[in-house]
Write a sequence for this structure.
């Protein structure tokens, strides 16, 4: 068999099984959805080409400015949480209820921030975030300061300002709080922010 015959045969097999392996890998991404408090449980959410298109459509509204992108990110988080609900089978309530640990589908701030961070990193890998970089998750409060510990996902704007994307306050599928990290750090766990 000649080299050209082998190349043609490999191309034919590739078409028959749905394209090159790299194309198939790019079409589907699995994200673990944390729930049960502290990521006690993980449910797999597969994001395929349909979600790629949906997120691209949502984020296209954010191309004009960092402010517009933050509003688009809020919509992307809302959509993502609705998809997460489909795999957990439970619509998470806003905030955490004490005593709800180890209940499938219920989420504390560790779960929420982990899930939002995973989404933001997925969007960044897809090249859908033009005005923000994903930063490490951050926290506030440590009981001794009179505040309950609370975690959030974080993004950084081109001017260096860090913003939190905190979906813990809203019911599953609701708009997350997106406020400056500095403002968020000074709040207590009972204070919700506002989208800026």
């Amino acid at each position: 068999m000649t080299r050209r015959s082998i190349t043609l045969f490999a191309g034919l097999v590739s078409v028959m099984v749905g394209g090159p392996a790299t194309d198939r890998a790019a079409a589907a991404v699995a994200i673990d959805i944390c729930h049960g408090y502290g990521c006690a449980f993980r449910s797999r959410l597969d994001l395929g080409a349909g979600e790629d298109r949906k997120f691209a459509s949502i984020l296209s509204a954010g191309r004009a400015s960092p402010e517009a992108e933050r509003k688009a990110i809020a919509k992307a988080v809302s959509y993502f949480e609705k998809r997460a609900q489909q795999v957990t089978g439970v619509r998470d309530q806003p905030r955490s209820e004490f005593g709800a640990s180890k209940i499938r589908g219920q989420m504390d701030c560790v779960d929420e921030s982990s899930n939002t961070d995973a989404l933001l990193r997925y969007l960044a890998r897809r090249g859908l975030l033009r005005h923000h970089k994903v930063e490490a998750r951050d926290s506030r409060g440590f009981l001794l300061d009179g505040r309950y510990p609370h975690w959030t996902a974080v993004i950084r704007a081109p001017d260096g300002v860090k913003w939190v994307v905190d979906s813990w306050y809203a019911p599953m599928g609701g708009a997350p709080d997106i406020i400056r990290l500095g403002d968020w750090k000074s709040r207590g766990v009972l204070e919700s922010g506002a989208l800026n």
